[in-house]
Amino acid sequence: MPRGQVRAMIWAAGAVAVTASPVQALTGRQLLRQCEALERGAVVSGETVRLPKGQDAASCWVYMAAVQDFAATVETEDGPSLIGSCVPAEATRLQLVQAFTRYARAHGDDLDVRATALIVPALARAFPCQDR
Protein backbone atom coordinates (compact mmCIF):
# COMPACT_ATOMS: atom_id res chain seq x y z
CA MET A 1 0.00 0.00 0.00
CA PRO A 2 1.47 3.40 -0.94
CA ARG A 3 2.76 5.50 1.95
CA GLY A 4 0.37 8.40 1.23
CA GLN A 5 -2.64 6.11 1.37
CA VAL A 6 -1.44 4.59 4.66
CA ARG A 7 -1.03 8.05 6.16
CA ALA A 8 -4.50 9.07 4.97
CA MET A 9 -6.04 5.96 6.51
CA ILE A 10 -4.25 6.49 9.82
CA TRP A 11 -5.35 10.13 9.89
CA ALA A 12 -8.91 9.17 9.03
CA ALA A 13 -9.04 6.46 11.69
CA GLY A 14 -7.73 8.93 14.25
CA ALA A 15 -10.27 11.55 13.22
CA VAL A 16 -13.09 9.07 13.59
CA ALA A 17 -11.78 7.76 16.92
CA VAL A 18 -11.62 11.27 18.37
CA THR A 19 -15.24 11.93 17.54
CA ALA A 20 -16.63 8.55 18.52
CA SER A 21 -19.89 8.80 20.40
CA PRO A 22 -22.23 6.32 22.01
CA VAL A 23 -23.62 3.74 19.62
CA GLN A 24 -25.88 5.60 17.27
CA ALA A 25 -26.69 4.46 13.78
CA LEU A 26 -25.40 6.63 10.99
CA THR A 27 -28.25 7.73 8.75
CA GLY A 28 -28.21 7.68 4.99
CA ARG A 29 -28.41 11.47 5.02
CA GLN A 30 -25.30 11.74 7.21
CA LEU A 31 -23.31 9.28 5.12
CA LEU A 32 -24.39 10.98 1.90
CA ARG A 33 -23.12 14.34 3.23
CA GLN A 34 -19.82 12.74 4.24
CA CYS A 35 -19.38 10.90 0.95
CA GLU A 36 -20.25 13.94 -1.14
CA ALA A 37 -17.42 15.77 0.65
CA LEU A 38 -15.13 12.90 -0.31
CA GLU A 39 -16.29 12.92 -3.93
CA ARG A 40 -15.81 16.69 -4.21
CA GLY A 41 -12.25 16.72 -2.94
CA ALA A 42 -10.61 13.31 -3.44
CA VAL A 43 -7.60 13.35 -5.75
CA VAL A 44 -6.75 10.06 -7.44
CA SER A 45 -3.27 9.42 -8.76
CA GLY A 46 -2.79 5.86 -9.93
CA GLU A 47 -3.66 3.65 -6.97
CA THR A 48 -3.28 6.48 -4.47
CA VAL A 49 -6.24 8.47 -3.21
CA ARG A 50 -5.57 11.74 -1.41
CA LEU A 51 -8.46 12.65 0.84
CA PRO A 52 -9.62 16.22 1.17
CA LYS A 53 -9.19 17.90 4.52
CA GLY A 54 -12.09 17.59 6.89
CA GLN A 55 -13.77 15.01 9.02
CA ASP A 56 -16.67 14.27 6.66
CA ALA A 57 -14.52 12.88 3.86
CA ALA A 58 -12.40 10.88 6.30
CA SER A 59 -15.49 9.44 7.97
CA CYS A 60 -16.91 8.30 4.63
CA TRP A 61 -13.56 6.75 3.67
CA VAL A 62 -13.31 4.76 6.89
CA TYR A 63 -16.98 3.70 6.82
CA MET A 64 -16.67 2.52 3.25
CA ALA A 65 -13.51 0.55 4.14
CA ALA A 66 -15.72 -1.60 6.36
CA VAL A 67 -18.34 -1.85 3.61
CA GLN A 68 -15.63 -2.90 1.16
CA ASP A 69 -14.51 -5.62 3.56
CA PHE A 70 -18.05 -6.96 4.00
CA ALA A 71 -18.66 -6.76 0.26
CA ALA A 72 -15.66 -9.05 -0.26
CA THR A 73 -16.82 -11.60 2.31
CA VAL A 74 -18.55 -14.54 0.67
CA GLU A 75 -19.85 -17.87 1.93
CA THR A 76 -18.92 -19.74 -1.25
CA GLU A 77 -16.38 -18.96 -3.92
CA ASP A 78 -17.90 -16.83 -6.70
CA GLY A 79 -21.10 -16.50 -4.65
CA PRO A 80 -22.76 -13.32 -3.49
CA SER A 81 -21.25 -11.42 -0.61
CA LEU A 82 -22.77 -11.58 2.83
CA ILE A 83 -24.56 -8.34 1.99
CA GLY A 84 -26.03 -9.79 -1.21
CA SER A 85 -24.03 -8.11 -3.96
CA CYS A 86 -21.23 -9.31 -6.22
CA VAL A 87 -18.68 -6.53 -6.05
CA PRO A 88 -15.70 -7.55 -8.21
CA ALA A 89 -12.34 -7.84 -6.47
CA GLU A 90 -10.95 -5.04 -8.63
CA ALA A 91 -13.65 -2.54 -7.60
CA THR A 92 -12.20 0.45 -5.81
CA ARG A 93 -13.48 2.01 -2.64
CA LEU A 94 -14.31 5.15 -4.61
CA GLN A 95 -16.52 3.06 -6.88
CA LEU A 96 -18.40 1.86 -3.80
CA VAL A 97 -18.75 5.46 -2.62
CA GLN A 98 -20.09 6.47 -6.04
CA ALA A 99 -22.55 3.56 -6.07
CA PHE A 100 -23.86 4.63 -2.67
CA THR A 101 -24.12 8.35 -3.47
CA ARG A 102 -25.84 7.68 -6.80
CA TYR A 103 -28.40 5.43 -5.10
CA ALA A 104 -28.89 7.78 -2.13
CA ARG A 105 -29.52 10.80 -4.37
CA ALA A 106 -32.10 8.81 -6.34
CA HIS A 107 -33.86 7.78 -3.09
CA GLY A 108 -33.95 11.11 -1.26
CA ASP A 109 -37.14 10.22 0.61
CA ASP A 110 -35.33 7.33 2.32
CA LEU A 111 -32.29 9.18 3.66
CA ASP A 112 -33.35 9.16 7.31
CA VAL A 113 -32.99 5.38 7.60
CA ARG A 114 -29.78 3.66 8.69
CA ALA A 115 -27.02 4.07 6.14
CA THR A 116 -26.72 0.30 5.81
CA ALA A 117 -30.34 0.12 4.65
CA LEU A 118 -29.25 2.17 1.62
CA ILE A 119 -25.82 0.64 1.08
CA VAL A 120 -27.11 -2.92 0.65
CA PRO A 121 -29.51 -2.11 -2.23
CA ALA A 122 -27.06 0.43 -3.69
CA LEU A 123 -24.36 -2.21 -4.05
CA ALA A 124 -26.83 -4.83 -5.26
CA ARG A 125 -27.93 -2.45 -8.02
CA ALA A 126 -24.42 -1.35 -8.96
CA PHE A 127 -22.89 -4.82 -8.70
CA PRO A 128 -25.67 -7.34 -9.35
CA CYS A 129 -25.02 -11.05 -9.07
CA GLN A 130 -25.51 -12.95 -12.29
CA ASP A 131 -26.62 -16.54 -12.34
CA ARG A 132 -23.54 -18.51 -11.42
Can you tell me about this structure?
- It contains five helices and two strands.
- Mean pLDDT is 82; it is low at 6-18.
- A hairpin with a 2-residue loop joins strand 1 (43-45) and strand 2 (48-50).
- It is mainly α.
- It has one domain.
- 55% of the residues lie in helices and 5% in strands.
- It has a two-stranded antiparallel sheet with strand order 1-2.
- It has helices at 3-18, 28-41, 55-71, 93-106, 115-126; strands spanning 43-45, 48-50.
- Helix 2 crosses helix 5 (115-126) and helix 3 (55-71) packs across helix 4.
- The radius of gyration is 15 Å and the shape is globular.
Q: What's the order of the H and E elements?
A: HHEEHHH
| Helix count from the secondary structure assignment | 5
Structural class: mainly alpha
Sheet with the most strands: spatial strand order = 1-2
The number of E-state strands comes to 2
What's the gyration radius in Å? 15 Å
- Could you give the distance between the termini? 32 Å
Percent of residues in beta strands: under 5%
Helix content: 55-70%
Shape annotation: globular
The largest pleated sheet is described as:
2 strands, antiparallel
